[in-house]
Structure prediction request, 323 residues.
Amino acid sequence: AAVDREELGLESLAGQLRKLGERAERLGVSNDQLTSMGYALEDLVRELRGHWQDLVDQLDANPGELNFVEERLSAIDRVQRKHQCADDSALIAHWETLERRLKVWTEGAEELERARAEVREASLKVSAAGEDWNQILMKAEPAMVAAVTGGLADLAMSQTRIAVRAVRRSAPSPLGTYAYTLEFSANPGQELQELAKVASGGERSRLMLVLKRYLAERKGLSTVLFDEIDTGVSGATASKMAHMLRSMSQNAQIIAITHLPQVAALGSQHWVVEKLVDGDRTLTQLKTLSDSDRAPEVARLLSDGDLSALAMAQAEALMAAAE
Prediction:
């Protein structure tokens, strides 16, 4: 776009200079000085004209840049209103705060992913260790099965079959990567099933006695406690269990809580557990029996509480068998 002297106001400036000249005459300024000032002013105007023309040329050459700047300013204004920032400085401060939060979140996400990777790696190691441990345990199953079935045969359960079933857990637990179930069959033709579902009380008592005997021998335990291990058992089977407990006492101290005279009679030391009521309190008393008191206590287990001569004779016969 052309810019002439009129657009730049040169004609107007010339008129003003003439007036200034008249005033300068009154002030004593020479024409040469005014002329020099006029030339200097005209040079400044030409320089200004050049800058103005450059700006006009830029806007004419890239009109989209002006639109871009206006759109950018409009976007900044919208963001400023959205985040309730009073001015540009507040908007910049808010942006810096969000940037710090994003950095923390990003670093946290990276740390979380690293932790997940470590968990996955640890899970693989646990799974592998669980497989190794399961193989070791299952290798011991045949020896355990043979010992237990042999012991049950001595307790009038010669047809018994048992097996250990290992089922992998859906996820590792404090109990391991596998769950183990003892399967049991007491009669020929009966399928192996979970022990808790098919075994009677007496069968469970005999199985637990034999299992504990096997484990005590394997671990070399010095003391084994049985709490009414003879539940659901009577007669000849009770006597066989008593003799099994007696044989275990050759290698370990056996403490058996029982209500069966056959078991009590074979003990070498006896205690009586009694409950006493003292006012509003119930006390439990453990009393050591002397040699003379042992037979009467066994006799009480054989009778309804009365110490008959027959009960005493049976008790003494049972205790004599132990000797």
Observations:
- Strands lie at 161-173, 176-185, 193-194, 223-227, 253-257, 271-278, 281-288.
- The chain has a mean pLDDT of 84.
- The first helix runs from residue 5 to 8.
- Residues 5-61 form one domain.
